[in-house]
TrEMBL record:
Record region (Disordered): 475-509
Catalyzed reaction equations: ATP + H2O = ADP + phosphate + H(+)
Recorded family membership: Belongs to the AAA ATPase family. BCS1 subfamily.
GO MF term set: ATP binding; ATP hydrolysis activity
Full protein name: AAA+ ATPase domain-containing protein
Coiled-coil spans in chain: none
Species of provenance: Lactuca virosa
Basic and acidic residues: compositionally biased ranges: 483-495
Pfam family, one: AAA_assoc
Domain of life: Eukaryota
């Protein structure tokens, strides 16, 4: 033992002496060159190669550093024991409610990709002197060093880095709160040149809570899934990676709730485009260019936002309380006659389907309306609106979902007689899910009372609809009798009319009938 200590002491003495000699004999530049030479010699003999990924490259943040950090965070959290120590760093990013793990300073982690093992080291050194920079630099220099066997380099390096980028994007999306963007500031930009304002998107609506026909729901979910997984398909078929949805139906049937459910399902951001705030087609295009991939671009109540009825007329439209001049179109092209400084249907069609619509990818356009009949067919064609989804009044299957949402009860928990009665009246009542939700929310503390009140509300509404229909039938009959009487009183007139063509009379009768129906509605 004594001998061992003597050897260690003499070795340390030799080390101290050589260091003093090195410092005294070699000037700093020479020392640096020697170290470099030793490093090169070591690299030539070593079977490993090393890649440094620094946090800041020049004055720019190195995106790859962030990607590696995120990627390693998933491995670090799951394999804490694989690191050389049990210390991990924890971070929570801006706009993120998730905590991410990271390698602590100067720690190592082994990763395996395609059967090849590599080692990551997180290297942190103090920044020696603050060099001149337009922005303050962190006090520490941070970077990752990737070590892999030289023979594996050509085999995995490129695909490994691609994989890391992809994985990092996935983690970023999963961790980051989704955002709801709006263009409520009109055309003005913020300090970062952004036309969109954003807030965290926290809408709780999901496909599970959405009350609609289960078959239709499953179809939409599968369509969305296919879309999100369809990158290869869209590339192969030469189509832009986007999809259009038109949600239409009466107010309160869940169109906005469906958009929130779609965003939550795909984990996409939402851009709520307020068309009445957009003044020109150019502004619309700029807004589109500033949207990100993996997002849903929404235009609600499209029929109220812009005159979309006739592309071939010059019209002055009143939109959101302000007068707007539409341009003249010939098959959707803007005439350059001075009035093209406004937003037009042509601009909107280009927005959804033109070349500019492909400036990003993986985007869904959703339009909503209460009046589908008011929309120009050009807007409705496939490619622009691929899926037309009718959000209807509450059906019995939808009602069961609402009962589960608000009262927490399944059909088995409801008395058979009540359930049967509910089934009989739901369709006839034509109540919206919003109306039914209101009845259930008010009485949610007492399930029995809630069911009673709901049944009563449905019954009253169904009765009202039925008597309305009867009244309509009686009115139509009465009118028809009057017509008949008039025809008998003046047979010549009636005969002439008949000679002119019964369809005219028939159309007149139909018009009359339509007027009565509209009046009653
Ligand atoms: N299908 C539905 N499933 C679950 N809840 C619904 C549904 N439809 C409506 N609701 C409830 O009613 C409220 C209003 O619904 P929503 O705003 O989605 O209707 P909308 O169709 O967008 O109406 P509008 O045409 O007036 O914009 C929501 O907060 C939601 O709670
Ligand atoms: Mg809505």
């Amino acid at each position: 033992m004594k001998e061992l200590w003597t050897t260690v002491a003499s070795l340390m003495g030799v080390w101290a002496f050589s260091q003093t000699l090195l410092l005294a004999v070699f000037p700093p530049q020479l020392r640096f060159a020697l170290i470099k030479l030793f490093q090169r010699l070591f690299n030539c003999c070593s079977s490993y190669c090393y890649y440094d990924i620094t946090e800041i490259e020049g004055v720019n943040t190195n995106e790859l550093y962030n990607a590696v950090q995120l990627y390693l965070s998933s491995s670090a959290s799951s394999s804490c024991s694989a690191t050389s120590s049990n210390r991990l760093s924890l971070t929570r990013g801006l706009n993120s409610s998730a905590i991410t793990f990271g390698l602590s300073h100067n720690d190592r982690l082994t990763d395996v990709f395609n059967g090849v093992s590599v080692v990551w080291e997180h290297i942190v050194t103090p920044r020696q002197s603050q060099t001149f920079s337009w922005r303050p630099l962190p006090e520490e220099k941070r970077g990752f060093t990737l070590r892999m066997n030289k023979r594996d380099k050509s085999y995995i390096l490129e695909s490994y880095l691609d994989f890391i980028n992809e994985k990092a994007n996935e983690i970023r999306r999963k961790n980051q709160d989704r955002l709801l963007y709006t263009n409520s500031r009109g055309g003005s930009l913020d300090s970062r040149g952004q036309p969109w304002e954003s807030v965290p998107f926290k809408h709780p609506s999901t496909f599970e809570t959405l009350a609609m026909d289960p078959m239709k729901k499953a179809e939409i979910m599968s369509d969305l899934r296919d879309f999100a997984d369809g990158q290869a398909f869209y590339t192969r078929t030469g189509r832009a990676w986007k999809r259009g949805y038109l949600l239409y139906g009466p107010p309160g049937t869940g169109k906005s709730s469906m958009i929130a459910a779609m965003a939550n399902f795909l984990r996409y951001d939402i851009y709520d485009l307020e068309l009445t705030e957009v003044q020109t087609n150019l502004e619309l295009r700029k807004l589109l260019m500033k949207t990100s991939s993996k997002s849903i671009i929404v235009i609600e109540d499209i029929d109220c936002s812009i005159n979309l009825t006739n592309r071939k007329e010059t019209t002055t439209t009143t939109t959101g309380g302000c007068d707007r001049k539409s341009s003249t179109f010939v098959d959707g092209d803007i005439e350059t006659s001075g009035t093209n400084n406004s937003i037009t249907l042509s601009g909107l069609l280009n927005f959804t389907d033109g070349l500019w619509s492909c400036c990003g990818s993986e985007r869904i356009f959703v339009f909503t309306t209460n009046h589908i009949e008011k929309l120009d067919p050009a807007l409705l064609r496939s490619g622009r609106m691929d899926m037309h989804v009718f959000m209807s009044h509450c059906s019995f299957p939808s009602l069961k979902i609402l009962l589960k949402n608000y009262l927490g009860c399944t059909p088995d928990d409801v008395e058979t007689a009540i359930l049967q009665r509910l089934e009989e009246v739901t369709d006839a009542a034509e109540m919206t899910p919003a109306d039914i939700s209101e009845v259930l929310i008010k009485n949610r503390r007492d399930n029995k009372k809630a069911l009673r009140e709901l049944l009563e509300a449905l019954r009253v509404r169904a009765e009202k609809n039925r008597s309305g229909l009867q009244r309509l039938g009686a009115d139509v009959e009465e009118m028809a009798e009057e017509e008949e009487k008039r025809a008998l009183e003046s047979p010549k007139e009636g005969g002439d009319a008949a000679a002119d063509g019964g369809c005219v009379e028939e159309e007149g009768g139909k018009e009359l009938e339509d007027n009565i129906i509209m009046g009653l509605i």
